[in-house]
């Protein structure tokens, strides 16, 4: 059976330990970045929209929606094309998007200030952070699929990845 080098091996134990470690590091780093974007996103909006519960609620809501979208999209994509390159392109796209939108924070918020605060915060947070957070959230489903080839180990792998990603979030805080 021919196997594409970018696809997951057929048994959990076939994956080289260095690659497995790299994938766990990916889980930790993306977990950290997600929390950093969530927290710093609200701080980026604060000079223009303030720090009220509307801003924080919008940022948290957008983060949760983005995570849901990313988990779903990541699972869908990895089931159709289990290539690690897709995951790392998504991570790169998230980084590029975030870098490109930083200069847009002030003009966007100034335009949105005409709206009620809750709408301004929700729209600003959605435009600036929904896409990159969704792209980063694709990591979990991708890594579960890439690290697991046996139903017998899916629970262990999912638990380990979730723990590593969450610890990455704590480190990012």
TrEMBL record:
Residues spanning the membrane: 22-42, 54-74, 86-105, 117-138
UniProt keyword Membrane, yes or no: yes
Annotated keywords: Membrane, Transmembrane, Transmembrane helix
Name the UniProt record assigns to this protein: Major facilitator superfamily (MFS) profile domain-containing protein
Species classification: unclassified sequences, metagenomes, ecological metagenomes
